[in-house]
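Worked example (supplementary).
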Amino acid sequence: MPERKKPKLAVFKFSSCDGCQLTLLDCEDELLALVGEVRISYFLEATRKVEKGPYDVSLVEGSITTPHDIKAIREVRRMSKTLVSIGACATAGGIQALRNFGSVKEFIRKVYAHPEYIDTLTTSTAVSDHVSVDFELRGCPINKYQLLEVLNATLNGRRPNIPRHSQCMECKANGVVCRMVAAGEPCLGPVTQAGCGTLCPGVNRACYGCFGPMETPNTASLAAALAAQGRSRDEIQRLFRSFNANSDAFRKEGDSHG
Amino acid sequence: MADTRTIKVEALARVEGEGSLSVKIRDGQVKELRFGIFEPPRFFEAFLKGRDFREVPDITARICGICPIAYMMGAAQAMEDILGLRVTRPIRDLRRLVYCGEWIESHALHVYMLHAPDFLGLADALELAAVDRSLVEKALRLKKIGNDILEVVGGGRAIHPVNLRVGGFYKLPSRKALRALEDDLEWAVETSVATVALVGGFEFPDIQQDYNFMALRHPDEYAIHEGRLVTSQGLDIPVSAFLDHVEEEHVPWSNALHGYAKNGSAHHVGPLARYNLNYDKLSDTARAAAAAAGLGPVVRNPFQSIVVRAVELVQACEDALALVRGYEEPDVAFIETAIRAGEGHGCTEAPRGICYHRYRIDKGGAVLDARIVPPTAQNQKVMELDLAKVVQANLEEADETIKWRAEQAIRNYDPCISCATHFLKLEMERG
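After joint prediction of all chains, the assembly is encoded as:
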């Protein structure tokens, strides 16, 4: 009997820390089973074997920060049947999107002795700002079980089951004491998408928003509550300006506290 | 007209980041060799300015998904240095434990999945799994044990853990949760010893380099997260003096600044440096495993770094086991003190070598200035020196062989170009 044709999986990287693609290798218990179901056609962090596209599923990590990136992501889109952007860099521009709020020229001067050698865009942006994306998997980093769910769903032709509700809902469901109410801490849980596994509140600290804005977040209301805690405008702005600073909801809220 | 031959590697695989390689050969001699890094700059030092000092460890973690602990702990130490804050012994031990987790995870990944395939003539660990599935299963279990430590101590995830802070931890792990790692760690010690024997049996190109090694050194232990900086040229300085002795240079072919010693010599950081400078601090088991694999106190062949990494796996697993067994929940998870302005330094041994941090903060705790020198930046110069020697020694070989050897010479350093790589190009001109 001829072997079933396995779907081709590719993993691409743009500006990032490599952590989200590492998440795939961190699926230690599932990795060998997964590679039994797909053909790893392009995944430079793991293999020097490179197969030409088109690919059935492409996972894209990292944000778009150079003129070359813009060309490369279009090529990735052209070669990919399904394109899934993974992580805060690919879905919102990542921490390096903080450049969008400052002068990049000044940034380059601060880090590099010869600014003329550096070729970079003035912004760090999400993959979806440049090409159409079939699914955006959030997180800084992504959660490995959510990654497996997205791969499983995509390979089986269904929509991934990834919740869009807030972290608050998860804390309530898990009986975790509220950091905002009980400890008076500045928490992004009310406006952040669930999915990390309630990590920060689980270790007695407020959510800092790794998973980006939930569906229809009321950031203004949260900002008002933070102000009522006595937080300064600067502190409120910094809260919204971290790993998902360039997501629409967090960018707008952050901008209004300048 | 000289005869010109060009070899290109379109992609360097099994490293973290983005780079390129160009070689020029004239009259059978390597004339110019550049290991370039094109990973786009991310400007951490610039956007840290104005952030609250307490936010810094979580931000710097995002420099590297493979070694976030190095960036979190270096930053936390520097802030503690500014505040004059000394963490308690139990907090210090927990930090060493979580760092052992990062070493185990990172070294197991590199030894088995990124580096070993080179010595076996395979493209990757998946091909290895096709040949010997149980070996790859063992490798994955070993790696997972490292990640388990990171999850238990680091607050639920191995990449960008959430439980580390200036002054210690947000929440102490329970004794029970740590003790649950004991059986796995016993297995990990045995498996690491077997790993040393396995990779010690590989064939290594005979290349000896006269490196100036630099590493942390601690009087009581194989240094991971604290100590003084020492070199094989006899330098012995506190971490705070790092920048008095190391310079960074911006070269046109790399977006990572080149670090080098101010006396002009390239220095080498990472497992080989630590092994050579701290051999006397290795555990008996680690030293015995090294000896059985034919390693004495001095190892100067960069290709044998895979064996040294395995020896360090033994050390990290044994240390982690002892720390887990000795753990009692202390009274406090972290210590705090009043904010004051100042300058501070931090330096730890990331899996790839010393990772240095310096910050200045104002009296309100806002960052005025940040400087971070990652290990791969410091190794760029010695990587180029190795490449020159490897290419020179293989000039008679076919292009494909030279290409692979050159890739291996880079992978010897487990380079992290994110701290780096998706595309490494090898361009070779022969004349």
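Two points are worth noting when inspecting this output. Chain A has two domains: 8-155, 167-255. Chain A touches chain B through 64 residues (CB under 8 Å).
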